[in-house]
Structures are given as structure tokens and as C-alpha cells.
TrEMBL record:
This is Glycolipid 2-alpha-mannosyltransferase-domain-containing protein. PANTHER family: ALPHA-1,2 MANNOSYLTRANSFERASE KTR1 (PTHR31121), MANNOSYLTRANSFERASE KTR5-RELATED (PTHR31121:SF2). Belongs to the glycosyltransferase 15 family. GO terms for cellular component: Golgi apparatus; membrane. The active site is at residue 278. The keyword Glycosyltransferase applies. InterPro entries: Glyco_trans_15, Nucleotide-diphossugar_trans. One of its GO terms (biological process) is cell wall mannoprotein biosynthetic process. The keyword Signal applies. It comes from Stachybotrys elegans. Keywords: Glycosyltransferase, Signal, Transferase. Residues 1-22 form the signal peptide.
Length: 400
């Protein structure tokens, strides 16, 4: 008996060890620049890039404040264009106010206001609407954020599978997603698009955090099954998003039926990149692999029967389709999207050893005696909660 217990324990330890991440010999994802630059203008070397904001007419106040923040902190030096997308026709008020604000910074700018075509927003015909409605009501009763709102599901599906095909974005390769009511809390004095291109990065984020598990019970299983069916090899970033099962071998696979477990019974740790800020290469999403993945997920119906967000879809796709060093953390961009903020932080050598990039809990409010800002002229938000370090530390192990 004791022998079998010992054997099981050894097997569990070996199994868990297969989830350890071999850390690279050097930092594969350092910041492009540290501190303030004398804006690094690259002359003719500009990227084929645009800002994109999805908004409703009633988001006008938040839209204006986000645009002001982006223009003040970055774009008054760089003059990238703006594209605004809406599922409904824009009001004259929205168009006028936004155009006037952008013109204050750049008299020559021509912001684009576009409507999303019906085939990109709304139920596809294979969705059972009664089943969708009752799932939404159930999720709402369980307090899954926004799950009761049909339009939120359409939005997540659009941002997962369609924005990059919108005709207003087709001319561009790179986008920087901006939402209403966000702010950048440091100056950005270099061109992140150009640096992404130069360093062979494809997807950039500022915040990594946990997903609300109840919004995605079957998403990870679906994506893991797709990965297996397409024989996609496992990257360290995929592994970093997982948590090994500590059940003994024969029991382990029974756990496969639990939420966000794969067919072997190991699970997603729910860590993902927050997609309300993204700078990424749309060719990632326009690739046949991503289209195949999105189509597979879309057929399943989980955008409606559950409340799959575009953030976990983008993140798990990046973990599958990119090398971990093609994913960039904008460690020097201060960023607030209520209720959280990311505030640039220089870890101590010891914290760095452990992948630390954000203050440990004790230091989050008061500052750290060895702290030094990575960013430029940061004025971090005094109100928003500083994001916890766990997911950053886990995901960053793949590159540093
Ligand atoms: P949260 O970030 O998950 O709390 O959700 P938000 O309310 O910020 O929505 C995410 C993004 O989608 C924002 O850019 C919103 O403006 C946009 N959005 C959400 N719902 C709709 C909608 O029904 N229509 C349009 N046009 N935009 C939407
Ligand atoms: Mn938002």
C-alpha cells in the first residue's frame, strides 16, 4: 500500500515538473526604452498603424477623455490616425466633438467614423436564441459581469473575430486599441509600432490578470482540443497559462470535465492579457490559423451560451500561435482602466529573479524604497487599484 502511495506521489511530482518553465538565459522582452526620450521620431520610418476605438454614441464623454490622454501622452508627437467603430450610426454630436478635439492637436488629421456591418455584429444563424437568452439569464443570476447583456456578447465576438476585417482597418497592419474612459499615466516618447516591428513583436499588453472563471467554463477546453486536433506544439507561454493537476494519474483525467480543464485534467490558471489596451499586428488575427480557431469557437456558440471575452481568446491564441518572445509587455506604460491600473515599476534584483515586475502586495500603495520608474513622467492614479503581480510574474517567466 505504502509503495503505491509513494509511487503516486512521485508520479505527481514528475507530472507537476513538466509545467515548470525553463527560463531563458537573458531577458527576451526588455522595455524598448526606459525613462523619457526626446521624442524618438523615426523620420520616414513609420508603421502602417492606427488607433481604433469601439464606442457607443453615449460613450462620448469617456471617448473624449481617452483621446485627450492618448494625444497628450503620445500622439501629439506621432500623429497616427484614428478609426472609430460603432454598431449603430454615429450621432453628429459624437462626430463633431471628437473631430474638434483631434483637430486641436492636429489640424490635418481626418478621423474616420464607421459603422460595423451586420454580418460582424449579431447572432450568427446557428445560435439557438432561446438557449442563448436562458444561458444569459442564468449567468446574470450568478453575477457574471455583463453576461445578461446581449450587446456585450456581440461586442466580445466582434473583437474576437471581426474587427481586423472591418474595411476601415483593412489598410492597416498595426492597431492600438483604445477604450472610452481609460488613461495613460506616463508620457510615451517613442513609437511603439515601429519598435514592435523592429523587434519582431506581434502582440503587446500592459496588464495581465485573472479572467472571471464563470464567464468561460468551457473556453479553455475548446481551445486545448483545437490545439490538439491541429497538432500545435506547446509554447512556454501556453504552459505558463496552465496549472498542473495534483491528482494522481488515473484520477487526473476525471477532472477533465471540470471548468477550464483540458482533456488530461490539467487546467488554465485563468491568467490572460487585458485586451482593452492592445498594440498588435492584425496579421496575427488575419492568419489562417487564427481564422480557423475563431471559426471553431464561433461554431461552438460559447460567445452566447457562455460569455467568452475577446481578452482570453486573444491571449490563448497568442500563446498558441506566437513565440513567447513575440509577445511584448509595455512595462513602462502607466495605464488605468477602472477599477485597475498598472503602474510602471522597477523590481529589485531579487524580485527580478522571480519574474517580479509589479510591486508585491505590501509595497503596492506605499512605494518601494528601491523603486525607480521605468516610465516617463508617470503620475499614477491615486484611486485605481494596482493590479496584482501573480499573472505578470507567471507569464513573464517565459521571457525573463
Ligand atoms: P469592459 O471593459 O469589459 O468593462 O466593457 P466596456 O463597457 O468598456 O466595453 C468594451 C468596449 O466595447 C468599449 O470600447 C465599449 O465602448 C465597447 N462596447 C461595449 N458594448 C458596446 C455596444 O453595444 N456597442 C458599441 N458600439 N460598443 C460597445
Ligand atoms: Mn472597458
Amino acid at each position: 500500500m505504502l509503495f503505491f502511495v509513494a509511487l503516486a506521489a512521485v508520479e505527481i511530482i514528475f507530472h507537476a515538473k513538466t509545467f515548470a518553465i525553463a527560463r531563458p538565459a537573458q531577458n527576451l522582452d526588455p522595455p524598448f526604452y526606459v525613462g523619457c526620450q526626446n521624442p524618438v521620431l523615426n523620420g520616414a520610418d513609420r508603421a502602417n498603424a492606427t488607433f481604433v476605438m469601439l464606442a457607443r454614441n453615449r460613450d462620448i464623454g469617456g471617448a473624449l477623455s481617452s483621446i485627450r490622454s492618448v494625444q497628450d501622452q503620445f500622439n501629439h508627437n506621432f500623429h497616427y490616425p484614428w478609426v472609430f467603430l460603432n454598431d449603430e450610426p454615429w450621432t453628429e454630436n459624437f462626430v463633431t466633438q471628437v473631430s474638434d478635439l483631434i483637430a486641436e492637436y492636429d489640424a490635418n488629421a481626418i478621423p474616420v467614423f464607421e459603422v460595423i456591418p451586420e454580418n460582424m455584429w449579431g447572432y450568427p444563424d446557428w445560435i439557438d436564441r432561446d438557449k442563448a437568452r436562458s444561458s444569459m439569464d442564468n449567468m446574470k443570476a450568478q453575477d457574471v459581469p455583463y453576461a445578461g447583456k446581449e450587446s456585450y456578447h456581440h461586442m466580445c465576438r466582434f473583437n474576437s473575430g471581426f474587427f481586423f476585417d472591418h474595411h476601415a482597418l483593412l489598410p492597416y497592419k498595426w492597431y492600438w486599441r483604445v477604450e472610452p474612459s481609460i488613461s495613460f499615466t506616463c508620457a510615451i516618447t517613442y513609437d511603439p509600432f515601429v519598435e514592435m516591428e523592429r523587434h519582431d513583436k506581434r502582440y503587446g499588453y500592459t496588464v495581465a490578470l485573472w479572467e472571471v472563471g464563470k464567464s468561460v467554463p468551457s473556453l479553455f477546453r475548446k481551445i486545448a482540443d483545437w490545439k490538439a486536433s491541429r497538432s500545435i506544439s506547446t509554447t512556454t507561454l501556453w504552459t505558463a497559462m496552465m496549472q498542473p493537476s495534483y491528482l494522481p494519474w488515473p484520477l487526473r483525467s476525471l477532472a477533465a470535465w471540470l471548468p477550464y480543464h483540458d482533456s488530461s485534467g490539467d487546467s488554465w490558471n485563468l491568467c490572460h492579457f487585458w485586451s482593452n489596451f492592445e498594440i498588435a499586428d492584425m496579421d496575427l488575427f488575419r492568419s489562417s490559423e487564427y481564422r480557423d480557431l475563431f471559426h471553431y469557437l464561433d461554431q461552438d456558440g460559447g460567445f452566447y451560451y457562455e460569455r467568452w471575452g475577446d481578452a482570453p481568446v486573444h491571449s490563448l491564441a497568442a500563446a498558441l500561435l506566437l513565440r513567447p518572445d513575440q509577445v511584448h509587455h509595455f512595462a513602462e506604460f502607466g495605464y488605468t482602466h477602472s477599477p485597475f491600473q498598472y503602474c510602471p515599476w522597477t523590481p529589485t534584483p531579487d524580485e527580478l529573479q522571480h519574474g517580479g515586475l509589479v510591486p508585491s502586495k505590501a509595497d503596492r500603495k506605499g512605494g518601494h524604497k528601491n523603486a525607480k520608474y521605468l516610465g516617463c513622467n508617470c503620475k499614477c492614479d491615486s484611486k485605481a487599484e494596482v493590479i496584482r503581480p501573480t499573472c505578470f510574474n507567471r507569464l513573464r517567466q517565459t521571457v525573463m
